[in-house]
UniProtKB/TrEMBL annotation:
Annotated localization: Cell membrane
PROSITE patterns per record: MFS (PS50850), SUGAR_TRANSPORT_1 (PS00216)
Encoding gene (name): yoaB
Predominant localisation class: membrane
Annotated transmembrane regions: 40-65, 77-98, 105-123, 135-155, 167-187, 193-212, 243-265, 277-296, 308-326, 332-358, 370-391, 397-415
CDD domains hit by this protein: MFS_YfcJ_like (cd17489)
The protein's name: Transporter YoaB
Topology in membrane: Multi-pass membrane protein
Gene3D superfamilies cross-referenced by the UniProt entry: MFS general substrate transporter like domains (1.20.1250.20)
Length: 430
């Protein structure tokens, strides 16, 4: 592999290639190369971003209550302010990543994340803490969009599902390791140790980002001029790419269902007396996800999107159904594994679909559109579900969510699954 290290490209002009970034699937001499230095470094940077997020999201609410005598509601906002900042950033992150350059925006975002992590240490009041959380979420949204775009630019089209699945394993590992590490640091040491650990993690991500070199895509001058014209003016399509809105709307509904799991799992565990099972929930989630992503990405490439998405929906519906009736720890652990096979399968599968729906120069916008709609679902879900929970209890709430997954399946069929290209693998397409 030959990788160009030049990253100073004039604004509005597409860089020129050295490595074939998105090779076609047809008639190659062998499997297109998937694991490259760019892919590996991007994987690690993405993992570190999510590790920082999960270390803090599980500890911030209690920190605000203990340190600043905040109410539970305000403490919850201190934690979720991160999501607010990320959601606002997603409105423009894809556009700026596409216009200003993926690597440039990644480095700027990683610097913002480092600054935010450093500010947790001196933050001496609740408003300051909330401001830091907003800043951190803002930087995180840009960083995640940019690094995912870089990774997707080097995944061969013929191995899109497989490569996206491998890349998603970093998020899965962070899902398991982040909360456990955060709770360990707070429980065994103190919050100062937690903040120093997140700062070191953020700095390491920035250092790796400096060494990340994005392979450049060769384009003729005429193609560059056409793309420049398309990029000239900011429009609504730069916030939400029309081609990604269908699969994004599907993931918005899925996000509401997932919000019912991550938001209320601890309260559910105390109510049902299954705290041990809840503690192992995300471990089971990560293990199931790790095992199946080694297989399902290849299946998506060979057999099409539908087989993977419908499998994920069935598993997710079963997981929510189990939670609706569970009263023993082992049942909650099984639900965790099924959630890993369900939601953990759907997100990378949807990302592969979104990436294939947009042209190469709109990768950033495509990815940010999917993540924006997903964030809306996860953010709005707890508000709606909280009302349902207060009125009917956990059993009814999780039963309703299982039914909502069935609705999501119908929506998926309507917007994507019924089309011929969703029924056949990319390896079968010329």
């Amino acid at each position: 592999m030959s990788v160009d290290t030049k990253d100073d490209v004039p604004t509005g002009q597409l860089p020129v290639v050295v490595e074939q970034a998105r090779p076609g699937p047809a008639h190659s001499a062998g499997p297109a190369r998937l694991v490259t230095p760019t892919f590996v470094v991007a994987w690690v940077v993405n993992f570190l971003q999510y590790l920082t997020f999960y270390m803090l999201v599980t500890t911030m609410a209690l920190y605000a209550v203990k340190s600043f005598a905040a109410s539970d509601a305000v403490g919850g906002f201190a934690s979720s302010a991160f999501v607010v900042g990320a959601t606002v950033a997603r409105l423009v992150s894809g556009y700026l990543v596409d216009i200003l350059g993926r690597r440039k925006m990644l480095l700027i975002a990683l610097v913002v994340v480092v600054v935010a992590c450093a500010l947790y240490l001196p933050a001496g009041s609740l408003p300051v803490l909330i401001g830091v959380r907003l800043l951190h979420g803002f930087g995180y949204a840009f960083a995640s969009t940019a690094v995912m775009t870089i990774a997707q630019s080097v995944i061969p089209d013929s191995r899109r599902g497989e490569g996206t699945g491998y890349f998603a394993l970093g998020t899965t590992l962070a899902t398991a390791a982040g909360p456990a590490l955060g709770l360990f640091l707070v429980g065994s040491l103190n919050y100062t140790w937690l903040f120093w650990t997140t700062l070191v993690t953020a700095v390491l991500g920035l250092v790796l980002g400096v060494f990340l070199r994005e392979p450049l895509v060769k384009r003729e001058a005429q193609a560059n001029q056409e793309v420049d014209k398309q990029r000239a003016a900011f429009s609504l399509s730069d916030i939400a790419h029309p081609a990604v809105l269908p699969i994004g709307s599907f993931m918005l509904v899925v996000g509401v269902c997932y919000a019912g799991v991550i938001t209320y799992l601890n309260a559910y565990a105390e109510d049902r007396g299954v705290t041990t099972g809840a503690a192992l929930f995300f471990v089971a989630y990560a293990v199931a996800m790790l095992i199946m992503r080694l297989v399902l990405g290849k299946v998506q490439d060979q057999r099409g999107d539908n087989v993977v998405v419908y499998l994920g929906l069935v598993c997710f519906a079963v997981a929510l159904g189990i939670l609706a009736v569970a009263n023993q720890d082992w049942q909650v652990v099984v639900a965790g594994a099924m959630t890993g096979l369900g939601y953990g399968t759907l997100m990378p599968a949807a990302q592969a679909i979104a990436v294939n729906a947009v042209p190469a120069h709109k990768l950033g916008t495509g990815i940010s559109t999917l993540l924006l709609l997903m964030d809306v679902g996860v953010g709005v879900g707890p508000v709606i579900l909280g009302l349902l929970l207060s009125a009917a209890g956990f059993g009814t709430m999780y039963t309703v969510l299982a039914v909502l997954v069935v609705v999501a399946a119908l929506l998926y069929h309507a917007v994507h699954g019924r089309h011929p290209h969703a029924k056949r693998g990319r390896l079968a397409v010329d």
